[in-house]
């Protein structure tokens, strides 16, 4: 069984309310997939709006942290659970003109590695997955940038 709830993942109270709603409908969470994200500003770092740059960090890293923290409270108490963070090629390799997005995904990779070690003794496993570059979602809107690796059709 599956269900969905909407919330601003950068707002811990709103995210907690959505998690609570899902828990009421489905019971305790066995798995969390952090897949929300934004591309952030596109352009040379010295030209992009700093508020937009920080918003990419807030959503892509901060939102994943908020949801992970909410899920881990229950998962650690129960001694089991899985968390999958959707990362990106940009978190490991250079992506010119996308510094906010790349920095947020690199930080998410490191957060995943760190939390995987923290939670292992508690029966919780945390992974990161890079789904590759596809012409859907964020990839569809970014395919015109010449510095991007070739997208899968």
CATH fold topology: Rossmann fold
CATH architecture: 3-Layer(aba) Sandwich
Name of the top-level CATH class: Alpha Beta
User: Which class do the helix and strand fractions yield?
Assistant: mainly alpha
Tally of discrete structural domains: 1
How many extended strands? 3
Strand order of the largest sheet: 1-2-3
CATH superfamily: NAD(P)-binding Rossmann-like Domain
Shape: globular
Biggest sheet details:
3 strands, parallel
Low-pLDDT windows of residues: none
Give the SSE layout.
Layout: H1 12-26, E1 31-34, H2 50-78, E2 81-86, H3 99-119, E3 124-129, H4 137-142
Parallel strand pairs: 1-2, 2-3
Helix pairs in contact: 1-2, 2-3
Key terms:
3-stranded parallel sheet; Rossmann fold; 10% strand; mainly alpha; 153 residues; single chain
Protein described:
The protein has 153 residues and is mainly α. The chain has a single domain (12-142), classed as Rossmann fold. It has helices at 12-26, 50-78, 99-119, 137-142, and strands spanning 31-34, 81-86, 124-129. Helix 2 (50-78) links the parallel strand 1 (31-34) and strand 2 (81-86). The longest helix has 29 residues, at 50-78. The protein is globular. The two termini are 32 Å apart. The mean pLDDT is 89.
What would you say about this model in short?
It contains four helices and three strands. The chain has 153 residues and is mainly α. Strands 1-2-3 form a three-stranded parallel beta sheet, covered by helices on one side.
């Amino acid at each position: 069984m599956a269900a969905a709830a909407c919330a601003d993942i950068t707002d811990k109270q709103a995210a907690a309310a959505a998690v609570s709603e899902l828990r009421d409908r489905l019971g305790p969470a066995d798995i969390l997939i952090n897949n929300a994200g934004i591309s952030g500003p596109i352009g040379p770092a010295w030209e992009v709006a700093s508020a937009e740059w920080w918003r990419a960090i807030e959503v892509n890293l901060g939102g994943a942290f908020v949801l992970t923290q909410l899920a881990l409270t229950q998962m650690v108490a129960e001694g089991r659970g899985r968390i999958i963070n959707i990362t990106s090629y940009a978190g490991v390799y250079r992506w010119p003109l996308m510094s906010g997005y790349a920095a947020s995904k690199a930080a998410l990779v490191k957060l995943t590695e760190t939390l995987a070690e923290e939670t292992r003794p508690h029966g919780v496993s945390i992974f990161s997955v890079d789904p590759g570059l596809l012409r859907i979602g964020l990839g569809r809107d970014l395919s015109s940038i010449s510095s991007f690796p070739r997208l899968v059709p």
